Amino acid sequence: MSEMTKVDTKEHVTDLPAGLGRLGRAIDRFAALTAVIILFVFFSFAANNFFTVRSVLSLALQTSTVTIMGIGVTFTILTGGIDLSIGSIVALSGTIAVNAALFGVPIWLSWIVGVIVGVVCGLANGLMITRMRLPPFVATLGTQFVARGVALTITNAYAQPAPEAFGSLGNENLLAMGPQFPGISWAVLIMIAVALFCHFFLNETLMGRYTYAVGSNEEAARLAGIRVNQVKLVSYVISGMLSGIVGVILASRMVTSQPNSAIGYEMNAIASAVIGGASLMGGVGTVGGTVIGSFVIGILTVGMTMAGANYFMQTVVIGLVVIGAVYVDRLRYRKSLA
Amino acid sequence: MADATPIVEMRNIKKSFGAVQALRGVDLVLHHHEVLGLVGDNAAGKSTLMKVLSGAYIPDEGEIFIEGKKAHITEPMDARQLGIEMVYQDFALAKDLDVAANVFLGREAVRAQLGPIRLMDKRRMEQETRRLLDRLKIDISSVSLKVESLSGGQRQSVAIGRATAFNAKVTIMDEPTAALSVAAIGKVLDLVRELKAQGCSIIVISHRLEDIYQVSDRMIVLRHGHKVCDCPVAGDIHEFRERVVAYIVGARDDFSKQIID
């Protein structure tokens, strides 16, 4: 056996030894988490009041929407695809939910209607990709325009005020205990629930494993008897559904329909996944990584704002972080590109 | 244990890709406990024929019988359920998944089902994969290593192990020794003999005539989508090699009437 191993190593001189590869991945993983901690410590000194319960809760609230979208887009990235339509789906589902409430539908039902709009958009994306064989980039880019256009058309580009009760989901806090602890918002709880469920889904269920398999080697997955189209469809439906949830949360927080909300959020979501170690080539990425990536962006944004940095510089810094993260991604997958 | 009914019988299989006729009416018979070598030049139709049997391609014409019963194979799952497993030339492994995940890909052990959501029994899959690797004497230190970190020989071992893990009746190996080191080739051929001894019927596609000579009972030679030879593997290796090459390049043809058609 040792002879075989020796000869085989010669065939693959360019490969990293297995141990080093695993160590490298472990370092990557720690690097992301370490980055969050370093950023946190840094801004605790650089900005007054950064390290307070209040601001941490505020950070969690602000980051929750992009985190949920990032988890959704992670599913599509894992299959080797992408979802550019999620920002527009957020606007459309929020808009339709508000209109449903204005139409007289019970508030709880109008929220569900918003989520269903997200599911339908995700289903449309999935069908275009699996049945019409459109590249995911093109299909979801189209949906980005269509969903935004429909939201603008429905509202005539105006923000419509929603019934007051519609705002309870986005504005009520749980466990509020005076000014020191304003409570945890529903959005943060939903984010935690979504993250836990999706982590479980990807790691413990057959469909989760197939999501990785399809992105890792679509042909192998097909030959193994996996229904590749079904797996892709599910990933786009999940992405759309989570965007629908975010749409309802945002509309509820504003207590209005905002046809112009969430413009460009898909890029923050994709950036979160990429910073968290997802490979745009598919097959690699985790819910935990995406959550960390999203919080890296969130901490940078909130921290720089509180430290008094120029607002426009924040965008520059986030861009550089994304480039740096993708560069690390490239280094890791250099051998599979070669 | 002679069984008159062949385990696989393919009749008059035709398959075209656009204007290219890859298979022009090929018959193939595989008996129980037999190793059949499938030989031919590039684009002779070997891989296409085997992809038809394994469900990766749907033939334009022709019939397949498994143990005498007509089979309708329209996707890989159909073939798999009939006990036909294929080891693909390019390994067909998901490099980002670990060894156990690849061995069980598409037929994961299920520990519980909650509506449409099925939960994997990861521990059982890991244990069974470990047992499989030990039984086949495959040297991989951990079943939770990602496939991308394995050598070529190790990957091929995983691919073969995966194909044979579920008591396949027929195992098809497409160029199992291509891209392998000499030592690794020896291991793979040992594995083929071991599988035959355990009662498996095997079809081996190979460019390496030495491999066919060493492990096969019978061989079929394809040329331009036709069968040109179907005979037992026997005799001296040099004589064997000369004979096979004559068929491959078209100097000999036992079924020449079909070519004129």
Compact description:
With 338 residues, chain A is an all-alpha fold.
What does this structure look like?
The complex is a heterodimer of chains A (338) and B (261). Chain A is mainly α and 338 residues long. Chain A has a single domain (3-337), classed as Orthogonal Bundle (ABC transporter involved in vitamin B12 uptake, BtuC), CATH 1.10.3470. Chain A has helices at residues 2-11, 18-46, 53-78, 86-103, 107-130, 136-155, 168-171, 186-204, 206-216, 218-223, 228-254, 265-275, 287-306, 311-332, 334-337, and strands at 160-161, 173-174, 184-185, 256-257. In chain A, the strands form 2 sheets. In chain A, strands 1-4 form a two-stranded antiparallel ribbon. The longest helix of chain A is centred in the N-terminal third of the chain and has 29 residues, at 18-46. Helix content of chain B is 33%, strand content 28%. Chain B has a 6-stranded mixed β-sheet, sandwiched between helices. A 4-stranded antiparallel β-sheet of chain B has the order 2-1-4-5, with helices on one face. The longest helix of chain B has 16 residues, at 182-197. The model of chain B has no long low-confidence stretch (mean pLDDT 87). Chain B has helices at 46-53, 76-81, 99-103, 122-135, 152-164, 182-197, 209-215, 237-249, 256-260, and strands spanning 8-17, 20-30, 35-40, 61-66, 69-71, 84-87, 110-114, 117-120, 170-174, 201-205, 218-223, 226-232. With 261 residues, chain B is an alpha/beta fold. In chain B, strand 7 (110-114) and strand 8 form a beta hairpin. At the A-B interface, helix 1, helix 2, helix 9 and helix 10 of A face helix 2, strand 8, helix 5 and helix 6 of B.
